[in-house]
Every structure is written in structure tokens, then in C-alpha cells.
Amino acid sequence: MHSKVAQKNNSYCEKRYKTQSYYNWVLLFNDIFILWYTIIMKYHKDIFEIIFHARGGQGAKTAAEIIAQAAVNEGKFVQAFPQFGPERSGAPTKTFVRISDHEIRTHEPITDPDVVVVLDETILDSEIVTTNLDKNEALVVATKKTALEISQKLSVRARFEGKIYPIDANGISMEIVGQPRPNTVILGKFVQVTEIVSLESVISEFKKIFGTKIGKEATDKNILAIEKAYDTI
Amino acid sequence: MCSCLPSQSDYNEEKLIIRFETTRLDSRRPLVEARQANVIRIYENILNNSNKKRIALSGGAAAAEALKQLEPDVMAVYPITPQTTIIETFAKFKADGEVATEVIEVESEHSAISACVGSSAAGARTVTATSSQGLALMNEILYIASGMRLPILMIVSSRALSAPLNIHGDHSDVMGARDTGWIQIFSENAQEIYDNTIIGMKLAEKVRFPVMAIMDGFNTSHCVENLEILPIEKVREFVGEFVPEQSLLDIENPVTFGPVALQNSYFEFKVNQEEAMDDVANEYLKIAKEFEKLTGRKKDIFEAYQIEDAEQVIILAGSTAGTAKDVVDNMRGQGKKVGLIKINLFRPFPRKEIIEALKNVQSIAVMERAISSGTYPPFYQDIMTGLFQFGEKKNMQSIIYSLGGCDIFAKDIEQIFNDLIANKISNEIKYIGI
């Protein structure tokens, strides 16, 4: 039985070698396709992975779901799930999002993110959020501080060479909405940095989820805040 | 764009016969093939799915969506984490007037399943949902439901059992109920729990046994994932109207359910019940076929993934199957012949079919999220029994993982395969992730 299978395999391989020149063309086309594909998917991975760090009650789960649903509206495959730790108000939490152009089968927690979003800068004091975040990958932090200050803060705990994008999410939120809502505001910055989903689909998803819940006026203010975060430098 | 993609038949063409040195290509071949397969998969997905509208729901919401489409007459339920996503979504449907279901709020799970027994015996399409301690509290009534042959559907978001207190996912609770006479169907993701809820309802009413449709607590119940849902009319048409053969409210034909049966009849009754259970797998397959026609999604008593020429195989159930499939694909890319069996229908256990699938396999690892204290865990026991009965001698490793929601990673599963390849197999149970 086994030898038969092996024989079949061998003859199959031989046939393949005979068509080598054709095969090389195929490889070339493949390479071109992969290049095109990776440009589309930006960070050279076919699954784009995000980790949200926040404190329980800050709405990281909502933010993650808005991004996930926005990606679904654009025809992508997604996965969004909280790290299943003890859920207490104020305790540090993690939320994971995966976005891809093809079906996502894995259910393991994300360990090698492409982007890390931190909704509360005090988490940087207690946790290392930049694990496996490489040079070309990004850290988005809700803070009043500058990128340099955050970089110095991070260097105490771990080496980090990636890009840091600070955004005064609470400030913008207080100014426009009148309440500290860093989770939705930071979406604007996140979209600006990654462009994994479009700002339009994030806003339309926000309307869908909150439109009836918080009323038109509050929704419009929140959207204005998201847009302002998107326009920051 | 897709014209540059070769089909399998193009490889087999012998038109271009050119001699060349094979070494370079040979060393790159596994890598190239893996990449090729991956690219083809990506392409197919893009082509297949470009026109389909997808939605994303958590497992719990997906189950609730299926329940909404089934529109049961009665849902008696008591909330418990991580089942809450089901009932909170369904209660919203009820409050919004989308379903006419009688949602009975009770004071405990024991009462929930008792109310279900009453309503189902009265002739109503009945569902419930629970987890963990809730399922354990129901235990007494589970036997009554199956003994009375009541087609109750229960969605279980499986979770660890106390003590120590843990709210996270594993299969301890459903394994504790595996001898209760209920049909048990495991699900891998949100799509599968949606499908199994619909299939489970039809199956229950067809074979007149209660059904547990099981998803992994948190891993599936709280994970937002893509799924395709059917139009509501299609679901109603597929499941059909529930017409009980006998019911308490049918006063023209009065019957009694679960009366006293002493030495002269109890034993015989139980044997009859067991004979009826033997037919369940066939009925499940028939319904699965019908469902496949409707949706294009293949359902089977177990899923054999890359098993045809596999030498090393992992057997498991639930959400870890997805991670394991990715590992299998990766290792196949490295030229290792590995495969996966994902158990869907666990009770009744498809012993013969699984052993048939394992015939040419060299070694097996059975991974489970439950302990059967004092002995080997449930899947291992069942599969070992089957192997022995059919005279197959295999090296088989028992593995327990992810109890109480511990993380399991692709690298852990890869390690298990590598241990099988290196023949590091023992009779001791291995614990992964502690």
C-alpha cells in the first residue's frame, strides 16, 4: 500500500521536473502575485493582527468590534475576541482583532501583533505592551505626551524600535463630546495609521451601533471626534 | 488576474520535456508547494467569496440567531456565564417582538430543564441553554428528558466545573453529561454552532431524543467571527413544523410520560431506548446531507482533515480544531504527513467510522479538555475501545490541554505532532500548557 503511494508520488514529481521551464514561469507569476498581495495587506502578512490594551470599562471591546464589523462590511474576514481574563472594572484587559482576505481558522491568542493600541497610558507602567512589535510596526497610545516621552517611558521596561503614534484621545473627547471616551476617538488615529479599514466604514459602523442608543446629537459629536483624531498629525 | 493561476492538470502535461539539473528545485520544492497551495487557497477564497455577503457574530449571538429563525414555542432558561450571550441576544429578540417564543425565566437551571420537560411533553418545541454548574445542576432531569424521549434542544457553552471556581472554557461539564442519554454535537466556530443549532433541532424532533449543541465557552461563545446565515424561510422549511407523535395536550389520545416501571419493564424500556440511540448516527447523516444541499457546507459525524495518507493524526473536538488545521497545513508544507480528526457527533460515538478512518495511521494523539478522574479521559477511552474491538494496534497518546480556559498555541500542537513523529508516546497522560 505504502510503496504504491510512494511510486505514484515519484512519477508525479518526475512529471513535474520535466515541465520545469513552465514551472519557473508559474513561480514568477506567483511571486508577482504575492508581491501585489503583500502590498495590499501592507505589513507582509496575510492576517493583520491587532491587540488593544485597556482597562476594564474603557470600551476596548466595543472599539475592537467596530473595527471588526467595519472590515466585514468591506468584505473581509475577521475575528474579535477579548482575552478571557477576569473582567473587573479598572483591571488591565487585552482585546484581539484579526483581519484577513481569507478565512481565519486559528483560535489561538495573538502573540505577534502588527499594531498595538493602548487606551490608557498608565498600562505602560505595569505591562510590556511591545512584545513582538517590530521596527515597521506601530504602537498607538492615548496620551497627552509626545512620542519621544512615550519612547523613554517604554525603554525602561523593554527595547522598542517601532513607530509610536500618540493621540490625546481623552482631550479630544472631552473637548468635542464632553465626556472621556478614548475608545471611539482612538479609532480615528488607528485608521489613519493602518488604513486596514476605511474611515467611512468605521463611521457608518459607529452610527449603526450607537445611532439609536445615544441619539443623533451625541453620535454626530462622537463622529466629529473620530474625524478630528484621523486628521491629527 | 486569475488567468496566471495554473490548474492541477497543467502540472501533469508532458508537452514540455526539458532536461535540467534537479537539485535546486528539489530542495525548494516543499516550500514552493506550500506557498503554491497557500496562494491558491487565498485566490479561491477571493473568487468564491467576492459576491457573498458575510456577517460577523459571536458564537452566542450566532446560536441565538439560529434559535430566532427556528422560533421555538418555549425557552426556559437561567443565565450563567458564558452562556449569557445566547439568552441576552434572544431576550432582545423577544423584547423587540421578533419572536413569539414564551421565554420562561426561572430560579435555577434545575427548574429551567424541569420546565422544558413539562413543555416538551405537552407538545411544544422547546429549547434551553446553559453552562458548567448549570448543566451539573440539571443532571438529574437530563436523564428524565432522555428517558421520556423528549426532543429538547440545549445549547451548551461549555465551561470548567468548580472547585476551584473558574468561568472559562473546557469540556468538563458536557463530559459529565455524556451518559445521560442526550445526543451531543460539538462545534468549532460561530458558523458551526449556528449550523448545529438548526441541525440539532431537526434531529431531536426526528429521533425523539434531546440534543446538546455544544460550543467552547468564551473561545467560541464570545469570539466575533464571520458566518453565513440562511434566510428565515429556508430554515423554517428545513426544520418543518413540530408535530409530536404523542403529547399531554392531545386529550383525544391520552398518554402518560415517565410512569413507574419496576423490574418487569424498566430494564426492557432502557434497552429499547438504547436501540433507538443506535439509529441516531444514520439520521444525523441524512439530515447533514440535506443541510449540505441547502448551504453547501459539508457536515459529517467527524471531520477528517488531510487524513488519506496521514501517518500521524491528532483527534480533538471544538475550537482548537481551527488552530490544528493551520498546523497540519504548515507541516504538510514541510513534507510531514500529518492529519486531523475533529469529532462532531460525540454521543452516540461513531466508533466504527473513526477506526475505519484511522486504519493506515501510524500514531495518534487524542487531545481533550476534560479530566475523567482516576482514569483516561473520555475520547481516549472510546477510541481505545474501538481500536481493540477492531483488532487495530496503534500507538496512542492521551493529552489533556486548556483546562479552565488555558491558552493553547499552534506551536504546542506542532510539538505534539513532532513527538508523535519521534515516537515519544507513552501510556501516561500528558498535560499541555501548565
Could you give the topology of this structure?
The complex is a heterodimer of chains A (233) and B (434).
Chain A: H1 2-18, H2 20-40, E1 47-55, H3 60-73, E2 77-82, E3 92-100, E4 115-118, H4 123-126, E5 138-142, H5 147-157, E6 163-167, H6 169-176, H7 182-194, H8 199-231
Parallel strand pairs in A: 1-4, 4-5, 5-6
Antiparallel strand pairs in A: 1-3, 2-3
Helix pairs in contact in A: 3-7, 3-8, 6-7, 6-8, 7-8
Chain B: H1 8-12, H2 23-49, E1 55-58, H3 59-70, E2 74-77, H4 84-95, E3 102-105, H5 109-122, E4 126-130, H6 132-147, E5 153-158, H7 172-176, E6 183-186, H8 190-207, E7 211-216, E8 224-227, H9 232-239, H10 266-278, H11 280-295, E9 302-305, E10 312-316, H12 320-333, E11 338-343, E12 345-347, H13 351-357, E13 363-368, H14 378-389, E14 395-401, H15 410-421, E15 430-432
What does this protein structure show overall?
The complex is a heterodimer of chains A (233) and B (434). Chain A is built from 8 helices and 6 strands; from the N terminus they run ααβαβββαβαβααα. Residues 1-6 of chain A have low confidence and may be disordered. Chain A folds into 2 domains: 2-39; 45-231, Pyruvate-ferredoxin Oxidoreductase, domain 3 (3-Layer(aba) Sandwich), CATH 3.40.920.10. Chain A has helices at 2-18, 20-40, 60-73, 123-126, 147-157, 169-176, 182-194, 199-231, and strands at 47-55, 77-82, 92-100, 115-118, 138-142, 163-167. Chain A has 233 residues and is of the alpha/beta class. Chain B has helices spanning 8-12, 23-49, 59-70, 84-95, 109-122, 132-147, 172-176, 190-207, 232-239, 266-278, 280-295, 320-333, 351-357, 378-389, 410-421, and strands spanning 55-58, 74-77, 102-105, 126-130, 153-158, 183-186, 211-216, 224-227, 302-305, 312-316, 338-343, 345-347, 363-368, 395-401, 430-432. At the A-B interface, helix 1, helix 2, helix 3 and strand 2 of A face helix 1, helix 2, strand 8 and helix 12 of B. Strand 2 (77-82) of chain A pairs antiparallel with strand 8 of chain B.
